[in-house]
Amino acid sequence: MLRFEEINYLYLLLSILLILGSNIYFFHWKSKSLKKFGDKKLIQRLQIGQSSIRKKIKNLFRVFCIIFIIIAFANPQIGSEIEEVKRKGVDLMIAIDLSNSMLVEDIKPNRLEKSKRAISELLDQLSGDRIGLVVFGSEAYIQLPITTDYSAAKLFLSSVNTKTISSQGTEIGKAIDKCLSSFDFENSQNKSIIIITDGENHDDIAIESAKKAKEKGVLVHTLGMGLEQGGPIPMKDKRGNIISYRKDKSGNTIISKLNELMLMEIAQSGGGKYIRANNSRAGLQELINEINRLEKKEIGTMEFTNFKDRFQFFLIIALILLFLDLLILERKNEKFNF
Q1: Residue 224 and residue 219: Cα distance in Å, rounded?
Q2: Within a 13 Å sphere around the CA of 17, how many CA atoms are in the beta-carbon half?
Q3: Which of 128, 197, 218, 112 is CA-nearest to residue 120?
Q4: What percent of the chain is predicted at pLDDT more than 70?
Q5: Which of 77, 168, 245, 330 is deepest in the core (most CB within 10 A)?
Q6: Are 194 and 131 in contact (CB under 8 A)?
């Protein structure tokens, strides 16, 4: 079993794209500048001792050297034994709405980002509880099966956006059903579902699904993301700038509002609690209080233990690449002609 002790360092791998982009821009700029300097054939004769292949190889070594150093910082660890680990907690499934209306900015920075931050803060305060993640629009999908790996949960959470699902809409009933199917009802753990949405429901089965969950002993809580006055749904370009707002067939700007009544009914039917988020709070503490009210029962899970650090192997590879970079000169080797 492989895991990373400091998984957040892996986000630095995104810097590789910046480095590659800078290199491409530099070579393009250099080539363009040389063309202005003089005749192409004359420049090639002046650079006869230079090897473009060697330069590319050296750049490749440097990029991979940085990659392996970043992985070393994240400290890969390998679990060598499997043991039964006892822990007390509850099983918790979180369903997050990824419909376009979650991009409304009545709650800053927008409803979706506020939801993700609330979940991340919730993860920081859990201990021993198992958690899973469902994403939904007009369909619902399991993004993360139920687990005690909070680092993995955060990683999966950071990757979700409105493009994660191709089908738009808000089918809360399907989200509840998908959460229910994710639970193992053979264990005695208390179970809860948290639905995070603006409540613009497009189905009629949400209430029935919440009642079905309650009958199975699963509480359904709802967290309303949005304000009563609502706001327009932004359309953004690739840079994240708002270029327009979504309109209906008549050309009028669509205003998305929090459907508080629907979310209250779902929570009441599911035996849970409705909480409304706003710009000053996300209802985090109230959710934690509700979860902590449940009796936390002990459960044994088979997990990898005795994890051993493996960062040193990646550092060695990085040092070898750095040595090869220093060893290879940019001048051509006359014997091999490159």
Answers
A1: 16
A2: 4
A3: 112
A4: 83
A5: 77
A6: no
Closest CA relative to residue 289, chosen from 276, 270, 275, 277: 275
DSSP secondary structure, 125-143, as one string: H--S-EEEEEEESSSEEEE
pLDDT in tens, 40-59: 565 555 555 566 677 778 88
pLDDT for res 195 = 95
Superfamily of chain region 84-300:
von Willebrand factor, type A domain (3.40.50.410)
Give the DSSP letter of residue 238. Answer: T
d(CA 6, CA 15): 17
Cα distance between residue 97 and residue 120, in whole Å: 15
Pinpoint the alpha helices (H) of the chain. 15-37, 40-46, 52-74, 111-125, 150-159, 172-182, 206-215, 260-269, 284-293, 311-327
pLDDT tens column, 1-12: 677 888 888 888
In the chain, which segments carry CATH 3.40.50.410?
Answer: 84-300
Give CA separation, 108 vs 140, 146, 231, 265, 274, in Å. Answer: 25, 29, 12, 26, 21
Cβ(87)–Cβ(298) under 8 Å? yes
**Residue 117: CB partners within 8 Å, gap ≥ 6?**
282
Q: Which residues contact 286 (CB under 8 A, 6 or more apart)?
A: 273, 275
Q: What angle do CA 147, 148, 154 make, to 5 degrees?
A: 85
Taking alpha carbons only, the member of 116, 113, 119 closest to residue 131 is 119
- Dihedral (CA of 246, 249, 255, 258) sign: negative
C-alpha closest to that of 91 among 125, 128, 123, 124: 128
- Tell me if residue 47 falls in helix, strand or coil: coil
- CA distance linking residue 11 with residue 174, whole number of Å: 33
Q: Match 């979860």 to its residue by tokens.
A: 291
Looking at residue 139, what DSSP letter applies?
S
Query: Which of 8, 5, 91, 62 lies closest to 299 in space, CA to CA?
Result: 91
CB neighbours (10 Å) of residue 316? 12
